[in-house]
Design a protein that fits this description.
Elements lengths: L4 H9 L2 E6 L6 H11 L4 E7 L10 H11 L6 E6 L3 H8 L3 E6 L2 H17 L4 E6 L9 H9 L10 H11 L4
Parallel strand pairs: 1-2, 2-3, 4-5
The chain binds adenosine-5'-diphosphate.
């Protein structure tokens, strides 16, 4: 269904966007997307997923704490959690735009499927994609967990406060 210009404008004028994800943990790549999102939207709701299918390093509470710590001086960033279908959460909160980041072709394939599935279930919700910046294109929570576990430095990839918590949890010689 093609939307009229007015319908599209109404969606983006809501000025509220949700950035959902695992954030296990938050990386500089995520932060870059959030900051760029803030330049376009009035408020970014970073929402941590209770993933039933993923075994995570950090609990939802810990992941929320880490994001809040990083954005403690940023009133336009709200940190929340959600369970179940993302579109149900968006409906409950009256949010009509989902923000996602893209790094690789494999990200594209996954994101493409998710965006189309969400669109089919809820045509009024749009997914807004931002391409990673080149300095963050290789950064993922998975790679970082491995680097820290093996005693490497997370500098330039993860906030110091997050790296500290990772080191505590994963050990890692350093
Ligand atoms: P999920 O399990 O939902 O994919 P992630 O925490 O891995 O959660 O990622 C959340 C979103 O952030 C996804 O859209 C992902 O593609 C994006 N993202 C993750 N790392 C980066 C990065 N370095 N640059 C740009 N986008 C990123």
């Amino acid at each position: 269904m093609v939307k009229s210009k007015k319908q599209v404008r109404d969606i983006f004028c809501s000025k509220l966007v949700i950035y959902p994800g695992s954030f296990d943990p938050l990386t500089d790549g995520h932060i870059n997307i959030i900051r760029r999102g803030l330049a376009i939207f009035d408020k970014v709701v970073v929402s941590v997923a209770h993933n039933i299918s993923k075994r995570t390093l950090f609990s939802v509470r810990e992941r929320v704490e880490m994001i809040k710590e990083v954005f403690k001086n940023e009133s336009k960033v709200e940190v929340d959690t959600f369970e179940g279908l993302l579109i149900n959460y968006c409906r409950q909160r009256g949010i009509r735009v989902i923000l996602r980041g893209l790094r690789t072709v494999s990200d594209f394939e996954f994101e493409f499927q998710m965006a189309l599935a969400n669109k089919q279930m809820e045509p009024d919700i749009e997914t807004f994609f931002m391409m990673t910046e080149s300095s963050y294109s290789h950064i993922s929570s998975t790679i970082l967990r491995e680097i820290i576990q093996l005693g490497g430095s997370g500098k330039g990839m993860v906030p110091a406060s997050v790296e500290k918590r990772m080191r505590k949890k994963l050990g890692g010689v350093k």
